[in-house]
Amino acid sequence: MRVALLGPTTVEADDGTPVDIGGARVRMLLARLALDPGRPVPTTTLIDDLWGEQPPSDAPNALQSLVSRLRKVCPVSLEPGGYRLGIATEDVDVFRFERLRAAGRLDEALELWRGEALADVREAPFAEVAATRLDETRLAAEEDRFRTGELDVAALTAMHEKHPLRERLAGLLMRALCAQGRQSDALHVYAEVRGRLADELGVDPSQELQDVHLAALRGELGPRPVVDRLPVRLTSFVGRDDELAEIAGLLGQARLVTLVGPGGAGKTRLATEAAARHPLHAKGRVWFAALAGVRAAEDLAGAVLGAFELSFGGDPMRRTNEGMNRIAEVLGAGESLLVLDNCEHLITAAAEFTGELLRRVPNLRVLATSREPLAIDGESLCPIGPLSVPDGQADVSGFGAVRLFLDRASAVKPGFRLDESTVDDVRQICRRLDGMPLALELAAARLRSMTVRQITQRLDDRFRLLTSGSRTALPRQRTLRAVVEWSWDLLSEEELRLARRLAVFPGGADLDAIEQVCLPDALYVLTSLVEKSIVDVVEHEAEPRYRMLETIRVYAAEQLESSGEKDEIVGRFRRYYRELTARWEPLTRTARQIEAINVYEAEQDNVVAALRGAIDDREVELAADLLGGTFWYWLVKGDNERAESSVRDVLALGDALPPDLTATFRAMQLIMAAAPGQADKAEAAQVIDDCVTSGAAQKHPSLAIALPMLAFLSQNRDLARREVQRASASEDPWARAGADWALSFMLVDAGDFEGAEVARDRAYEQFVAIGDRWGSAMTLGMKATFVSHTGDNEGAIALYERGLEVALELRSQDDAVQQRWRLAVEYARLGDHAAAEREVAAAEQYVRDIGNDQMSIIVDYAKAEVRLRAGDVARARELSEAIKQRDTTSIVFGSFVTEWSAVLDARIAIAEGRPDEAEARVATAVGATSDRSDIPDLSAVVELFAHVRYAQGRRREALRMLGLAQVIRGRLDLGDPDVRQMVAELGEPEPLGITRDEALREVRAEAGISDS
């Protein structure tokens, strides 16, 4: 949460929702604690600061009472040193203001003020001193803003009238008046301030104000045109606000700042903008020297002199010294800023020139741009990488790359905007062009003759596509290929060899992979490529990984193709990842599971590239090994679509696959495709036998769960029991745990809840002992459902929360969303609607963060149920309609959307008093769930059917329907408040003495569904 003190005291939750704090004294306590966030404040200090010299007779208890009231909305804890407000300094606007002010971001800092500081708690003894200090810092910030920015006479006059004795403010106003040619008015301000200081304080004006007065008398502050020696800015500047602030901060501390980054990152434009905003620019003391066209080191000084509009002749052997003397003379006349643009191709000469110049001119600052550092003493580096790009998020408008593309697109194609028809293409363009400004500008320029979709479709041929740059730009900036070639030409032979070989790694690589695949003992060459902005380095689990931007990698791939080395390097690459996955795959089911997942996450793009390449080249054994080495990771992470498509493609390689792998992949294919009850019984039995006879069942532990479940889903209960027994006898402890997990599933289906609980607990204990979090989370989810059905909603919530914690630790996106979904529904069933809403909001935010639109369907379903149980029927109806609109668009849940909507609409109709309409919707759900033989879903629908009959006033039929639900599941869901209410009023149903199949036929008949 965030606390605001720069105005009335307010609190907001993380999502911006206002929080009601309470009465005046509670607000005083919050404000006082917020002035020391995250640190304990002694009890005696709080009593003094809240009540002063007249504390209540029982002050400690009074303070404790205030703390108790504040704890309802804010995290306050008692620690040895006193009471502590558990929030970070960044969450209090006072400290955000101070940080922004220190960084020179004065506009942002001052926007935080909403009135007088501590406006509604100033009666507290502590408030006056604190408010006075804060008001002083606000005034100082406003003065700083005028000092570094435009002098606004009207605003300065208003401030001066409020604070007539502030001499710095008076000096700023005098400068502003003189800049407008109003010298007499400025002198009048001085006379007025001098008189007030003498009359009220008995002092003379400060030396600083006297100096301003003298300068005004001499006419030195009159309006003067600013000499702008920077390149003409023909386009708006978009993004890079953080970088501009960082550059300003660095220039305030260091005399040499170098912007380092790859070609096309926008270093020149950024340096120009930073120089234009520097205070020295308004004084005409900024120079810009473009070095891109300089070819020889001895010509560097002449190029800089050209920026000064000076020249020199005479003896060529003496030109460098003469040029340096004249440059130092100009720059030494006052504080100066020199921009040296494009130093990389003259890096040694540029470093020597800059070092010498900084030594000779003490009041000089240099802002350089280069693809590698100058590497001289005192240099501060500012890395300039790509603009921020969207990564699956629904709202992409705030990303820097998107903002730049839209700005340039609207310039060449007025009316172009971000909407449903363009957002996917814009997202893809920004991502695949790495957020690199030049590439984005070249792509936007193509809108003169292409649609945005046509641009997207041609990104694989980016070097032909992106050739429409400005005719006035340097030749190397007119096409994307020219940008990359400029960097490539600066590499040594050894650097070129490693750079082109690195193209085989689409996901980057660590040093070991690079040395195994590309070049032994590669570290020094690799770091040289990093220095020259050909390769980026990022930290992953405290280990560096090296990657190329996609555009550079595409160019490097061309060079690798033409070198004749491609087949050898690609072969090494694929074999390396076969060995890596073979080494890590068994560890995905052990206590090293998180470590293994980290490796797979880092290497996923490389593994997929190796697998796809092996499939395309029909390297059957290699493809099968790579798939076997990564398949289980995909299942744990919930990447089912990739798993399914890869299994299909590997199986298409045909008889060349080893029999055990064919059987294993067929089993996985069947179980991924099977909804409950829909796997073909004969086909499933054959595949299971193939797994046994080929030895796959013994070699692949994952089959310990897959084979029993495949038999169970194909309605072959005897075969399922056989496979459970086989897995239970395995020497692999994980296989034995999986067998117990599958057994508990089957026992629930058979109505043996006690036996299922024993098997489930045994599976959980084994998974925990092994260290497999995935198996533990799966078992916790099953146990939570079981506990919920007993009516223990709170117990189920505790289990779901543990399951969610594990899912987040595993970074299993689908599991995390589903755990939050079930948590939200369970809170709603408990009646804690606020907690249910919080879980839904957290699930929505998580889905937005991971960019998974498919998973948003089940979040909407959970939200509808939460709103319905809270009595917000209208909102639940809106959500149901939205879910139905996605019936045909969801790849993952499309077949279930109709069923879910039918259940929602039936419950909505009951809530609105239309039970007959609800009956028709329930019939649809009965048909869908019974056709799938999905016992858990079917029994819940039958309980809903009972609710329909109950709402119709047909109590006897309602009780009969509850009895049928009890037969189908084996018991009623007493965690559902609707079921609890019916049982409380109708009594528990008597045992019916019929089979599940008989109960199912009766339910279908009651719903009007024919079995003919």
UniProtKB/TrEMBL annotation:
<dbReference type="InterPro" id="IPR041664">
    <property type="entry name" value="AAA_16"/>
</dbReference>
<dbReference type="InterPro" id="IPR036388">
    <property type="entry name" value="WH-like_DNA-bd_sf"/>
</dbReference>
<keyword id="KW-0238">DNA-binding</keyword>
<dbReference type="InterPro" id="IPR001867">
    <property type="entry name" value="OmpR/PhoB-type_DNA-bd"/>
</dbReference>
<dbReference type="Pfam" id="PF03704">
    <property type="entry name" value="BTAD"/>
</dbReference>
<dbReference type="Pfam" id="PF13191">
    <property type="entry name" value="AAA_16"/>
</dbReference>
<feature type="domain" description="OmpR/PhoB-type">
    <location>
        <begin position="1"/>
        <end position="99"/>
    </location>
</feature>
<dbReference type="InterPro" id="IPR005158">
    <property type="entry name" value="BTAD"/>
</dbReference>
<comment type="similarity">
    <text>Belongs to the AfsR/DnrI/RedD regulatory family.</text>
</comment>
<feature type="DNA-binding region" description="OmpR/PhoB-type">
    <location>
        <begin position="1"/>
        <end position="99"/>
    </location>
</feature>
<dbReference type="Pfam" id="PF25872">
    <property type="entry name" value="HTH_77"/>
</dbReference>
<dbReference type="InterPro" id="IPR027417">
    <property type="entry name" value="P-loop_NTPase"/>
</dbReference>
<dbReference type="InterPro" id="IPR016032">
    <property type="entry name" value="Sig_transdc_resp-reg_C-effctor"/>
</dbReference>
<protein>
    <submittedName>
        <fullName>BTAD domain-containing putative transcriptional regulator</fullName>
    </submittedName>
</protein>
<dbReference type="InterPro" id="IPR011990">
    <property type="entry name" value="TPR-like_helical_dom_sf"/>
</dbReference>
<dbReference type="InterPro" id="IPR058852">
    <property type="entry name" value="HTH_77"/>
</dbReference>
